[in-house]
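Trying the structure run again after the queue cleared.
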Amino acid sequence: MPETNMPVTGPHRVYVRAIPAGVEIDVSAYVEDALRYLAAERPEDLAELIEVTASAAHQTSSGHADASAVHERDALAQDLSELVGPLTVYGAQAAQLAEWIGAGARSAMGGAA
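Done. Tokens:
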């Protein structure tokens, strides 16, 4: 297995890189498209997610855990992720992605199946 490979070329590129413990799966192309989509279609909700995340982080770092702020952040993040939807990999590219992930896992386990 080469050090880095792109078994999925579209609709979103997916890169797989072997590491000693297994593989890294780079889905940054999908994340970039998702962020652009949310910025265009739901900018207010995206801005709110940023705001409530910063607020929850600040409260936690100050020792004031606010369960409602964390719940609000998590619910909004879930709503936005459902709007974006899953990363879909089709046909032969799905098989190739599985092959690369499996090869990395076997390599990390010392070649064991």
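The mean pLDDT is 87. Worth checking whether this holds up in the mutant runs.
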